[in-house]
């Protein structure tokens, strides 16, 4: 990828200009919604929902382990509240990440919280998959902007500008 203008070098025979950035599980099918895009969206939605359900079952086993250990209702309540808050924050962070690029430093500082609230991230992925490929809107805006900038840079004037008639 060229650093100065955001375009990639193209192999012989393909159109020059910016190329769409691939999205996980979707590649570049999000551009024209072809090559199995609807099936991929259904698969992403079903897969993320199944992963969220399986994660909730695993968390239930963990809470049953806490009950068996008889550590008390207060600690169990703290664990439930912690997972609920972390899942809500992870949902919001993941959802916002579909519409704008996340800050890498903030992403690194929230890694632990997002790990604890993984159910929220899976649910955000599920709900976004119902309407579009997760991150499609952001990638489409960036791609269309890059295409417009490329076309603007490569458009040529016709004729000699010094012979142009001046309007009076």
Explain what you see.
- The chain is mainly alpha-helical.
- 60% of the residues lie in helices and 0% in strands.
- It contains 6 helices and no strands.
- It has helices spanning 37-69, 73-97, 104-109, 111-116, 118-129, 136-154.
Mean pLDDT: 85
Major sheet attributes? none
Number of strands: 0
CA-CA gap between termini? 46 Å
Radius of gyration, whole Å = 24 Å
- Find the structural class using helix and strand composition: mainly alpha
Q: H/E element string?
A: HHHHHH
Percent helix range: 55-70%
Strand content: under 5%
Individual helix count: 6
Based on Cα principal axes, name the global outline: elongated
Question: pLDDT under 50 segments (min length 5)?
Answer: 1-13
In short:
The protein is mainly alpha-helical and 168 residues long.
Q: What topology does this entry show?
A:
Elements (H helix, E strand, L loop, with lengths): L36 H33 L3 H25 L6 H6 L1 H6 L1 H12 L6 H19 L14
Helix pairs in contact: 1-5, 2-5
Keywords:
168 residues; mainly alpha
């Amino acid at each position: 990828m060229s650093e100065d203008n955001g375009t990639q070098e193209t192999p012989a025979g393909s159109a020059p200009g910016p190329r769409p950035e691939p999205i996980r599980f979707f590649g570049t099918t999000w551009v024209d919604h072809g090559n199995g895009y609807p099936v991929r969206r259904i698969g992403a939605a079903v897969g993320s929902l199944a992963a969220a359900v399986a994660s909730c079952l695993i968390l239930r086993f963990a809470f049953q382990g806490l009950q068996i250990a008889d550590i008390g209702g207060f600690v169990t309540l703290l664990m439930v509240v912690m997972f609920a808050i972390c899942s809500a924050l992870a949902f919001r962070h993941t959802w916002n990440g579909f519409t704008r690029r996340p800050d890498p430093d903030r992403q690194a500082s929230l890694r632990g919280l997002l790990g604890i609230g993984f159910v929220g991230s899976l649910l955000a992925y599920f709900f976004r998959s119902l309407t579009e490929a997760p991150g499609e809107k952001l990638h489409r805006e960036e791609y269309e902007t890059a295409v417009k900038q490329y076309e603007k840079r490569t458009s040529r004037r016709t004729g000699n500008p010094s012979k142009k008639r001046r309007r009076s």
